Amino acid sequence: MAAGLKTIIALSFILAIGFLLVILSCALWHEYLPLLVVATYILAPLPNWICSRCSNPDDFMESAGSAVVDFGRFCTAFLVVMGIALPVLLAHTGHIAVPAMVMSIIGGLLIYGTIISFTLFFQEEQDF
């Protein structure tokens, strides 16, 4: 699957909208705690990437590193759920407003979805 210039521009535009929503959720209500969502969504793909590199898949033994890959997926899923749950928790305790929570969650999901889309579109094909 070849990614063209239009794909790069579209994904960059979606990423910019996600960052804009998170920054506006902080700036409009003068509470900067929703910026933690950006950190969780940027860190979310890292465990999956590191564990997939460490699993060392082989042609002869396909299930050799499945525990490491599953651990990476678990850590990634934990960070994604934390990126959604953190604004909900902050809104529940009264540290941020509910509209800031909604904007932060939508912006964070756009950021994470764009990161995943970038990795899917620009994955290198492995020829054996």
Describe how the helices and strands are arranged.
Layout: H1 5-27, H2 36-43, H3 45-54, H4 66-93, H5 98-121
Helix pairs in contact: 1-5, 2-4, 2-5, 3-4, 4-5
Task: Give a written overview of the molecule.
The protein has 128 residues and is an all-alpha fold. Helices cover 73% and strands 0% of the residues. It has helices at residues 5-27, 36-43, 45-54, 66-93, 98-121. The two termini are 18 Å apart. The model has no long low-confidence stretch (mean pLDDT 87).
Features:
flat; mainly alpha
Low-confidence stretches: none
In angstroms, what is the radius of gyration?
17 Å
β-strand percent reads under 5%
What is the overall number of helices?
Answer: 5
The helix/strand class is: mainly alpha
Q: Mind summarizing the main beta sheet?
A: none
* Chain-averaged pLDDT: 87
Overall 3D geometry?
Answer: flat
The helix content, as a percent range, equals over 70%
Whole-Å distance between the termini?
18 Å
Number of strands: 0
Order of helical and strand elements: HHHHH
Question: Summed up, what is this model?
Answer:
The chain has 128 residues and is an all-alpha fold. The protein has 5 helices and no strands.
